[in-house]
Structures are given as C-alpha cells and as structure tokens.
Amino acid sequence: MDEGDDDHHQTLENGGGGGTSIHITALDGVVNVNSLFTLAAFVGLAWNPSAGATPGAAPCDVDFGKLESDLVSFHVLAFACFLFSSLVALCLKQAIRAHHPRRRSRHAGAARVDRAALRGGIIACAAGSVFGCGFLMLALVNLVQIKLGRIGAAVAPLVTLVPAAMLVYTAIVLYAFTR
C-alpha cells in the first residue's frame, strides 16, 4: 500500500479509543432507535385516519381528504427514511466487521476502514434519521388536525421539542464527524 492510500484509511483499534467497538455500538443504537420509529410509522400506515375523526368540529376550510393523503404520505416517507438509515447502518457494521483482520487471518490487529466511506455512511444514517423524524412529526401534526379539526395546543410541544432534539442530534453528529 502506498502512502496516498493511508490518507483514506483509518486504523480502528478493537476496543480502543475511537475504535471499532465504538462505531459498531453507535450503529447498533441507530438501528435500534430507527426500528422503534419504523414500527411507529408502520402502525401509522395501518391505522385508518377517518376512524374517530370529528369533522363537525373542523372549520369549513379543512380538507380531510388532503389531510388523510398527507398523513399517509408522511408516514410512507418516514418509514422509507428510517429503513434507509437502518440499512446503511447495518451495511457499515458489516463493512467494519468484514475488514477486520481477525476475520481473514490468525493475526489480531486493527481494522482498516475507509474513513471517507465511514463518514459518508454515518452522515447518511444521521440524515435518514433526521428526515424520518421530521416526516413522522408532520404525520402526527396531520393526525391531530384530523382528530381535532384544527392545530391546537396539543402540537406545540411536538413542533418545539422534536425540532430541538433534531438540532441537538445533528450538532452532536457533526461534532463527532469532525473528530
């Protein structure tokens, strides 16, 4: 391997600081959280939005057909984003494990992982999770509108806390990305 190849690869020590086990643990966390959100999106797709709606409580300008269509669209988009993020995380885990020298020889050592691919994969996982959360939040806002006929105080915590959490998550991912 020439010197130029070393710029694109990072040696990850198993169990060491910044090592393989940390990346795999983080990717496991992404998959676990995305699995819960994927389940929520899937259950949302299976639910009949018209059941229990109170059209009499809605202002005249609320289009329930449009709200139901948007609700299903946002659930599908959230489902797709979480599934994308989880699949990328699982692929990264497999790539890390496949490139670990213990899998190929008797010599224990460090895994050689393409740093650019790892970073790109982590950003793709984070982007999928963030967009999935955004679409799931929009689906819940539509659900409240269908149930109540208007956007009320019930969505205030949703539209403030979820974007705040997504900003914190993005900041932490970007911080980790630069380290």
Report on the architecture of this protein:
The protein is mostly helical. The protein has one domain. 72% of the residues lie in helices and 4% in strands. It is built from six helices and two strands; from the N terminus they run H-E-H-H-H-E-H-H. The chain has a two-stranded antiparallel ribbon. The longest helix is centred in the middle third of the chain and has 35 residues. The radius of gyration is 21 Å and the shape is elongated. The N terminus is likely disordered. Keywords: Membrane, Transmembrane, Transmembrane helix.
Give a summary of the structure in a few sentences:
The protein is built from six helices and two strands. The protein is mainly α and 179 residues long. The longest helix is centred in the middle third of the chain and has 35 residues, at 64-98.
What attributes does this structure have?
6 helices; mainly alpha; disordered N terminus; single chain; 72% helix; elongated; 179 residues; two-stranded antiparallel sheet
Q: How many strand segments?
A: 2
Share of helix, binned = over 70%
**Shape estimate:** elongated
The number of helices is 6
Tally of domains? 1
Distance between the termini: 25 Å
Query: Helix- and strand-based class?
Result: mainly alpha
